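Q: Could you predict the 3D structure of Ribulose-phosphate 3-epimerase?
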Amino acid sequence: MTKIAPSILASDFAHLANEIKDVEEGGADYIHVDVMDGHFVPNITIGPLIVDSIRPHTSLPLDVHLMIENPDQYIEEFAKAGADILTVHQETCPHLHRTIQLIKSFGVKAGVVINPATPAEAIRPILQEVDLVLLMTVNPGFGGQAFIPEVLNKIEQIAAWRKEYDYTFEIEVDGGVNEKTAVDCTNAGADVLVAGSAIFNQKDRRKAIEAIR
Ligand code: DX5
Ligand code: ZN
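A: Sure. Here are the predicted structure tokens for Ribulose-phosphate 3-epimerase:
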């Protein structure tokens, strides 16, 4: 069954624990946490302190998406704060294997992510090392943007390589996912769908999650 990862970026930060509880009770599989530094992406969001605060409020895996320059500097802190999956952008990692190994050294699952304009070939050499491949279907930085359909070919390509080489990583998509675009993503091979506004902008989160799934 397709996994759903609500992005708390679209939630009410003043009631974060309740918002997380609401989507957990609504059937979410992961909690997606968007970390932005105002450098790699134009927005600033949350750091390890918030991950540490939300950790006791959910038993779901925390899927932490690092949209930050020099992620190596913060990986230990996020791991110790309670991240279960740490995902780094290929565009921010000149020594990608080293960064992926660093994440794993803390006993955390390692993911790699690429922007819509970055070709699938850019992460081909790391595919056998990762637990998750995240394909951005918007340019990262903000919630509520329109889905970029050109990325569907890339989902298919990554899924084809996974099959060909018996890789075991999950394929996740992030950005502009709603009940319509979700169909194309899963048909192309996505296993995990991140959704922010399509879930948190709805009153009934269970219904929203089920509609996307
Ligand atoms: C975008 C973030 C996404 C964002 C998705 O930079 O990485 O996780 O929260 O939001 P929606 O689902 O509203 O496009
Ligand atoms: Zn994200």
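Q: Anything worth pointing out?
A: The longest strand covers residues 31-36.
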